[in-house]
Design a protein that fits this description.
By secondary structure, the chain is mainly β. The protein has 5 helices and 24 strands. The chain has 4 domains: 86 residues, no CATH class; 102 residues, Phage tail protein beta-alpha-beta fold, CATH 3.55.50; 72 residues, no CATH class; 69 residues, no CATH class. The C terminus is likely disordered.
Length: 390
């Protein structure tokens, strides 16, 4: 089967004062186009050096291939090979990279709030309608989606206590999303000249899901799994954390998180310096809020839990899934990026629920679709590649 080698790539100039299309890339040799469930992904493009492409591939321009995903031109290399062929190699990240350009200015604090709400609030306060230096720090064209701020908004991700002083907005969003197993993205709407930040859950399509969704299951018995491996690593594992917060010396606030009952060789301790967490927090209106002892200790414990999660046992199930020929499920129709699916490997006696964390389309002499699975434990980390050629 012969597929179209290329798709349409439109180029937009987007800066503080401009949001307009400037043309279409009519000549290119190869494109790797990604879309990630949580955070930014990296694209790569190879194209001939022409006067037109020289205008398109300028720092800050946005490439769009349709849909809601777009990417920023950030790295441009030019080369001439031994045959005299002149080529651009263009790289960059999807629009979530804009969130790395803002920090949490001051302290953000939340007590018993849904994770999705915390993420929307951070982006609103630092990027959309900033509390500090608003005219300077607002990211142009950025709005909040997902129904946030309307009666239709439904929070998700579970309630937590969270406090953060400084640091990039993006890194805080990644931590929060990973904690709640949810995703976030910045969507591109050129017709309305909007960038829209959204927090998403994905759909549970695992076998036996209670949401009534049609299940998607890949199985060795059905020859969906072409190859697989199981991996476990306990080198970095920690079981209990001693977390210290504000004050000094003997007065310093401390809590313990994790399994404090472990003894001997099974006890693996971690120290967490959380002095950035404060019991007195400055509000947006200039007033101060003082957390109760219980609330502050909950903040410390949450920080300890986050650090323990970063030092957990690594347990991965890797599988190459057949996604060509006579397949049961079609990507983009039966399941999407962000969905959870079931993978059953009876040869290794492993059954996992895995989330599709990234899709990557490759346009070259052949078309390829690469799916990356992850998050759940055990998780599928193997990139699954679909090659379709003539």
């Amino acid at each position: 089967m012969l597929l179209e080698k290329q798709i349409q790539i439109l180029v937009f100039k987007v800066d503080n004062d401009t949001f307009e299309p400037i043309g279409e890339v009519n000549q290119y040799d190869s494109l790797i186009w990604p879309d990630r469930f949580s955070g930014y992904a990296n694209f790569e493009l190879w194209a001939p050096i022409t006067d037109e492409n020289s205008e398109f591939f300028k720092e800050g321009n946005i490439l769009w291939c349709g849909g809601e995903n777009a990417a920023i031109v950030e790295i441009v290399k030019s080369r001439i090979d031994e045959k005299g062929t002149k080529t651009f190699n263009v790289k960059g990240r999807t629009l979530e990279a804009y969130l790395e350009d803002r920090i949490i200015w001051g302290t953000y604090s939340a007590t018993n709030k849904p994770v999705s709400t915390i993420m929307y609030e951070i982006v609103k306060q630092q990027c959309v309608t900033p509390n500090v230096k608003a005219a300077l720090r607002k990211i142009p064209y950025l709005e909040l989606g997902g129904g946030y701020g309307t009666p239709e908004y439904v929070a998700f991700g579970g309630n937590i206590d969270f406090q953060k002083t400084g640091g990039a907005v993006y890194s805080s969003l990644l931590t929060l999303a990973a904690t709640a197993d949810i995703g976030f993205s910045v969507k591109f709407y050129p017709k309305t000249k909007k960038l829209v930040f959204v927090v998403e859950e994905g759909v549970d399509r695992t076998t036996g899901n209670t949401d009534g969704n049609d299940p998607v299951e890949f199985s060795t018995d059905l020859e969906d799994i072409l190859s697989s491996s199981y991996y476990k690593n306990v080198q970095d594992n920690k079981s209990v954390a001693w977390v210290q917060g504000e004050d000094t010396g003997a007065s310093r606030k401390s809590v313990i998180s994790g399994d404090d009952a472990g003894t001997g060789f099974s006890r693996k301790e971690l120290y967490v310096d959380a002095r950035d967490l404060q019991s007195t927090v400055m509000n947006d209106d200039g007033t101060q809020t003082t957390l109760t002892t219980a609330q502050y200790e909950a903040q410390l414990k949450n920080r300890g839990d986050d650090k323990l999660a970063e030092n957990a046992t690594t347990e991965n199930f890797e599988a190459q899934i057949r996604v060509f020929g006579d397949i049961q499920y079609e990507y983009g129709v039966d399941y999407q990026k962000g969905d959870k699916v079931t993978v059953r490997d009876n040869q290794l006696d492993v059954v996992v629920s895995a989330r599709i964390t990234e899709s990557q389309e490759e346009y070259d002499d052949e078309y390829a679709l690469v799916l990356t699975f992850g998050y759940s434990y055990p998780t599928i980390m193997q990139k699954v590649k679909q090659k379709i050629s003539e």
